[in-house]
Design goal:
Length: 413
């Protein structure tokens, strides 16, 4: 109890000192405020961007593998010359994979054409994405409908002129009217709408179905070359949930090498892409941004820390005779040390809180813009922790010097 009372009294001494020197206090914490603001703002922006991108990546599915010509990660030392002569995934590859894979919940063949115009009477939607997919598309992707249904087996097999549309396409074409049963024009062909996807909102990686339309693959064969590289043909395999991703990938690789008749020891002539590749690339990119944030904000905090230490030495000098009186009345060394240490920590903590408040104001401002930044609790804790750490480091030596003063000499000063 005595120790707690002494600590409380030390804290009151520190509070009084800060109140008596308001201007000096504000100037001292300015460097800490700028440093904490810089670091936490960068981290908050990066974490918000990471969360939005990760949300998009999660749509790919943790047990989903994409068989494509090109591996993901087309930057840096990307050996494109190794992949340019690879064959595109074909309908033959898809048909044989469906028969051979035991760990697959669904295997779909997909192509995509972007920036197309879709029409209904006098209304049109420009920049729509057209996707053609085989029957298993609803097994390899999570589809939710606000109207209608998915293709039936008979519709897919017969290549019926039916189509699924995204929410934004439906809004642009039908002005809020029911979409089911209406006939739209796509690439010069008439198709009947049988389903409308639920609205997903903006997607930073373009994986939202809001502005897409989906037709069955057998119908698409009549209007485009579904094996052409310009449509980015992809075979999507979603594995069974109880099977490890490595086992699913290994089975796919073995089956594809057998289908392509790859010789033992020869490199694969296909790429197996998965969500973990994109996640790892994001982690590497954002780690570099975080380091940049630490460097930029670190210089400001370093300068602020020196400023705090300087002010604390001045504060010790001003109160030297008071320290002497306290020690002559029986104050212990740790009492004097805590008194100045608490003052230093309080200065840095005030600066850190002010920096966090500025970040919070920025997050409110970004809500009016296109990209919303969120101040996560982890970043708040980090800001407070850095403030306390800098306060402890900056204030320790002045506080230690004060605690070692000789009481007689201190009173005489």
């Amino acid at each position: 109890m005595i120790i707690l009372k002494l600590i409380g009294e030390s804290f009151r001494f520190a509070s009084d000192a800060l109140r008596q020197n308001k201007l000096r206090t504000m100037l001292s914490l300015l460097g800490i405020t700028i440093g904490i603001f810089t670091i936490i703002f960068v981290f908050s922006a990066v974490d918000s961007l990471r969360a939005k991108l990760q949300e998009s990546i999660d749509k790919l599915g943790s047990k989903t593998v994409f068989i494509q010509k090109w591996p993901w990660g087309g930057f840096g030392d990307y050996p494109w010359w190794k992949y340019v002569n690879r064959p595109e995934p074909s309908l033959r590859d898809h048909a044989l994979l469906k028969d051979r894979l035991e760990y697959a919940e669904g295997v779909s063949y997909e192509i995509f054409a972007n920036e197309r115009t879709v029409k209904y009477r006098s209304n049109s939607v420009e920049g729509a994405g057209i996707r053609a997919a085989s029957q298993d598309f609803n097994k390899t992707w999570n589809l939710e409908f606000q109207e209608g249904r998915y293709f039936t087996e008979n519709e897919g097999r017969a290549g019926s002129p039916v189509v699924l549309v995204g929410a934004v396409v439906a809004e642009g074409l039908f002005d809020g009217e029911p979409a089911i049963g209406k006939t739209i024009s796509v690439m010069g062909r008439k198709l009947t709408v049988i389903g409308v996807f639920k609205k997903e909102g903006e997607d930073m990686m373009g994986m939202s179905q809001d502005k897409n339309i989906i037709m069955n693959l057998n119908f698409a064969k009549g209007i485009m070359d579904v094996e052409s590289g310009r449509y980015d043909p992809t075979i999507t395999v979603r594995g069974l949930e109880h099977i490890a991703l490595d086992e699913i990938e290994s089975e796919i690789r073995g089956a594809m090498r057998s289908i392509r008749r790859a010789k033992p020891g020869a490199e694969d002539d296909f790429a197996l892409n998965k969500s973990t590749i994109a996640s790892n690339q994001l982690d590497q990119m954002f780690d570099m941004v975080n380091i940049a944030g630490w460097v930029i904000g670190g210089f400001s905090i370093l300068v602020g820390g020196f400023g705090i230490a300087n002010i604390m030495f001045v504060s010790v000098k001003e109160r030297t005779n008071i320290i002497g009186i306290q020690k002559s009345l029986g104050a212990k060394n740790y009492f004097i040390l805590l008194q100045f240490l608490f003052e230093s920590i309080a200065l840095c903590l005030l600066g850190g809180i002010l920096g966090l408040f500025l970040v919070y104001l920025v997050t409110l401002a970004t809500k009016a813009g296109g990209f919303e930044i969120t101040l996560f609790m982890d970043n708040i804790i980090l800001g407070i922790g850095v403030s306390v750490g800098i306060g402890t480091i900056s204030g320790f030596w002045p506080a230690y010097a004060a605690s070692r003063l000789d009481p007689v000499e201190a009173i005489r000063s």
